[in-house]
Design a protein that fits this description.
- 78% of the residues lie in helices and 0% in strands.
- The chain has 343 residues and is an all-alpha fold.
- It has one domain.
- The longest helix is centred in the middle third of the chain and has 30 residues.
Length: 343
């Protein structure tokens, strides 16, 4: 296991440096600092205030899934779970925070761990699908904005390709999730068969966790829940776009709200790469979007990317640390919680 861990860590570090190399290549730091000082202070303060907005909207959306297991889950637990999960993602490589988030809430609200893990799979599927839908609308609406917003042909082609990849990934995840839920007995039989070489105690534990995980997908059985969750997923991502729109304005970059969709899609792609703190992947794809889509000076693109990432990281980690301090927990304890689930 240690050998596999070090190999995985080596790959992650290699990817991080590769992306950061392309991000920082040909940067003129004097120009970067000049751009960074030219900021609208009141709007920037608003950016700081809006940074936790997605934690609240994600928490509200998550409550729809968790109410199938327990009604009346405290909103603070959901907000704290999101904040702590993203804090772990920002600090450690491998996106362990995706596991820490549901496990923390399960422990705090006395819910089944497997069930909560299943809801996070649904969350990821919808995040990809919603952004793919918004990107699709952007691509189809090209005749409406082509007269005042020129899309670089290369960028347009890349967006189309990434859109197809996103839909493919989300579709595979959706099909597998639906198969697990609607063919539950067959799924559990297959899991039981694969666990035969393992000790009975381990097999029982994994089988129990698998059963709870499938329970967490029962969301798919309710049309009303499906529609409510879809609506709130749009609220989550439209709120994220609004946050970036305000941030752009604070740096005197005026771009129509809806036309930020492809940029947000690209940053989502970059952020999904499991590097420490989303470093590298997020930065490279952000710079790519700012320069190819909006024609910004590369030095301004580098400066804005560093600032917006730093704001998200610092504000989220402060919130996460305050919550952890209040509850007497440490980041290492939470990291171990996530690693124990994957081992």
């Amino acid at each position: 296991m240690k050998k596999k861990h070090w190999i995985r860590l080596g790959i992650i570090i290699f990817l991080t440096f590769i992306f950061l190399y392309f991000f920082f290549r040909s940067v003129q730091w004097k120009e970067v600092f000049r751009y960074l000082t030219d900021v609208n202070i009141p709007l920037f303060i608003l950016v700081l205030a809006l940074a936790p907005l997605h934690l609240a909207t994600r928490g509200l959306r998550w409550s729809i899934l968790l109410r199938h297991e327990k009604k009346g889950v405290k909103f603070f637990s959901l907000f704290a779970g999101q904040a702590i999960g993203f804090t772990v993602i920002f600090i450690f490589p491998g996106r362990i925070g995706e596991l820490v988030k549901p496990l923390y809430v399960a422990q705090r609200e006395k819910m089944r761990k497997g069930f909560c893990l299943g809801t996070v799979v649904v969350e990821r599927i919808f995040d990809i699908f919603i952004m793919c839908i918004l990107l699709g609308v952007f691509l189809l609406a090209k005749p409406l904005y082509s007269s005042f917003f020129k899309v670089n042909p290369e960028a347009y082609s890349r967006l189309f390709t990434w859109g197809i990849v996103g839909v493919a990934v989300a579709s595979v995840m959706l099909i597998l999730s639906l198969s697990f839920y609607f063919f539950r007995e067959k799924t559990l039989s297959l899991v039981s068969f694969l666990l035969k070489p393992f000790p009975p105690k381990v097999s029982r534990k994994v089988l129990e966790l698998s059963n709870e995980f499938i329970e967490g997908l029962k969301f798919f059985h309710s049309v009303s829940t499906f529609l409510s969750y879809t609506l709130l997923s749009f609220v989550v991502w439209l709120g994220i776009i609004f946050y970036y729109w305000i941030f752009f304005l604070s740096y005197h970059v005026t771009i129509p709200y809806f036309l930020l969709v492809p940029y947000i899609f690209l940053t989502m792609v970059g952020a999904s790469i499991p590097t420490p703190g989303m470093a590298g992947g997020y930065h490279y794809f952000s710079k790519l979007g700012l320069t190819l889509l909006f024609g910004l000076d590369p030095n301004l693109a580098v400066g804005m990317t560093i600032v917006v990432h730093a704001v998200q990281l610092v504000v989220t980690c402060i919130i996460g640390y305050v919550i952890l301090s209040k509850e007497g927990l440490s980041l290492l304890q939470l990291k171990k919680l996530g690693e124990d689930t994957t081992s």
